[in-house]
């Protein structure tokens, strides 16, 4: 373990730059913070390439286990001040642990659709909190992962990683254009299910077939008309109050649990 005490240290500047998407893309690295998220990653078999920890943090068994495994794997463990951790993470009350991880995305062609009966597909999702929450929901229902189509927010942004609460490390993530995704989907089994206000079919009515690909549209605009047409099933979640739609990740949760419940009954 080595120590860093200066804000001007080149490594601090390098890691801090990972808060910017262009630097994450260039280095294929991203930041995750907090004992819980880093432990979730370790339990999924994924270790950080660099681990920063606060010198004055109280010892914790899980933190000690993580440090030992990172060092055994040849990773870099750095002790530093909480002020420097704040500079790296961009938070005033920084977590005592910050990890730097290799990009976890995969090519669409390497996705095994048979590995899970439920998959999420997000179209032009712009809010990192929604994206991270969708990953967390995917983990909860045993989904295989999240396929991002069109211009989505970066799943490896600090905000999205934080919102995923570690699910980023248990869910496969792929990115593709709509044309690429649809061509891939139609090469094998897979029911594409979209949610929309432009249908009268209640989401409880259909029988969902595995693998089910749940298509969640943009938070403000929903799904484009031609995307809705491409769906095998287009359903509507009933709204009993004045609001006309649910938050994107909440709608994803409602749909995913209905699909899961049908599978459990079978």
Structure characterization notes:
- This protein has 266 residues and is α/β, with parallel strands linked by helices.
- It has two domains: 2-103, 2-Layer Sandwich (60s Ribosomal Protein L30, Chain: A), CATH 3.30.1330; 106-265, 3-Layer(aba) Sandwich (Alpha/beta knot).
- It has ten helices and twelve strands.
- It has helices at residues 10-16, 21-27, 35-43, 61-72, 82-89, 128-141, 158-164, 178-185, 225-230, 248-265; strands spanning 2-4, 29-33, 50-54, 76-80, 97-102, 105-106, 118-123, 145-149, 172-176, 191-195, 212-216, 233-235.
- A seven-stranded parallel beta sheet has the order 6-9-8-7-11-10-12, with helices on both faces. It has a five-stranded mixed beta sheet with strand order 1-4-3-5-2, sandwiched between helices.
- The chain is elongated.
- The N and C termini lie far apart (53 Å).
The share of residues in helices is 25-40%
Name the strands of the widest sheet in spatial order: 6-9-8-7-11-10-12
User: What distance separates the N and C termini?
Assistant: 53 Å
**Overall 3D geometry?**
elongated
CATH architecture of the largest domain: 3-Layer(aba) Sandwich
Task: Report Rg.
Answer: 20 Å
CATH topology term of the largest domain: Alpha/beta knot
Low-confidence stretches: none
Strand content: 15-25%
Number of domains: 2
Count of DSSP strands: 12
The biggest sheet amounts to:
7 strands, parallel
Describe the secondary structure blueprint for this structure.
Elements: E1 2-4, H1 10-16, H2 21-27, E2 29-33, H3 35-43, E3 50-54, H4 61-72, E4 76-80, H5 82-89, E5 97-102, E6 105-106, E7 118-123, H6 128-141, E8 145-149, H7 158-164, E9 172-176, H8 178-185, E10 191-195, E11 212-216, H9 225-230, E12 233-235, H10 248-265
Parallel strand pairs: 1-4, 3-4, 6-9, 7-8, 7-11, 8-9, 10-11, 10-12
Antiparallel strand pairs: 2-5, 3-5
Helix pairs in contact: 1-5, 6-7, 6-10
């Amino acid at each position: 373990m080595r120590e860093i005490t200066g804000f001007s240290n080149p490594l601090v500047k390098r890691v801090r730059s990972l808060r910017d998407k262009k630097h994450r893309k260039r280095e294929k690295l991203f930041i995750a913070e907090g004992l819980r998220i880093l432990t979730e990653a370790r339990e999924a078999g994924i270790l950080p390439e660099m681990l920063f920890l606060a010198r004055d943090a109280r010892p914790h068994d899980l933190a000690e286990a993580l440090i030992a495994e990172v060092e055994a794997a040849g990773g870099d463990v750095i002790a530093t001040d909480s002020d420097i951790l704040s500079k790296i993470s961009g938070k005033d009350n920084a977590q005592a642990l910050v990890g730097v991880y290799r990009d976890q995305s995969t090519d669409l062609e390497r996705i095994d659709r048979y590995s899970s009966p439920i998959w999420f597909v997000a179209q032009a999702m712009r809010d990192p909190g929604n994206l991270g929450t969708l990953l967390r929901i995917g983990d909860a229902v045993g989904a295989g992962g999240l396929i991002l189509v069109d211009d989505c927010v970066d799943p490896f942004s600090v905000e999205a990683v934080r919102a995923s609460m570690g699910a980023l490390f248990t869910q496969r993530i792929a990115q593709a254009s709509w044309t690429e995704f649809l061509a891939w989907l139609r090469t094998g089994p897979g029911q594409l299910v979209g949610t929309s206000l432009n249908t009268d079919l209640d989401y409880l009515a259909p029988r969902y077939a595995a693998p089910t690909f749940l298509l969640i549209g943009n938070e403000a605009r929903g799904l484009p008309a031609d995307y809705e047409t491409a769906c095998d099933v287009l359903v509507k979640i009933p709204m009993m109050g004045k609001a006309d739609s649910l938050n994107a990740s909440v709608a994803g949760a409602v749909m995913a649990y209905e699909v899961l419940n049908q599978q459990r009954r079978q």
